[in-house]
Amino acid sequence: MVWTDAKHPLRVAVNYAVVVAARHSPSLRLKNWLLRRIGVDVGDGVAWGLESTPDVFWPELVTVGDDAIIGYDATLLCHEFLQEEYRTGEVRIGDRAMLGAGTVVLPGVEIGDDAQVAANSLVADDVPPGETWAGVPAEPVNNNKRNEEASDPS
User: Residue 37 above 70 pLDDT?
Assistant: First the structure.
């Protein structure tokens, strides 16, 4: 399959132009307004860092909950072109979730409410509500171990 079989080139060009404008806009209100025009479901109070990018092929598959923070240069992908396969999937970011700078979220992933993803992580699996994940690929951070190490006087 070639990409033009998946989405009309003119639609992708319009989406791309809107996303580029949103990526460089310092105004969160304008950013959210622009992204809603191409089908991104943007909740109230969402903060997009500069250079953050929702999928340009399938922006209508992106949902970002109220008061979520999408860090600088984060990417939300709803499609993958693989060797033998073309795959799409919704990306859902929960209320008050936070994605660190440079995070990449792959198709079909849900980041739960109040979850946090560390900078430069690659998220290939769902992140449950309230959890903190980090790494490539992203995995849960053992908060109990970190708390024990911080309280150990040795």
Answer: yes
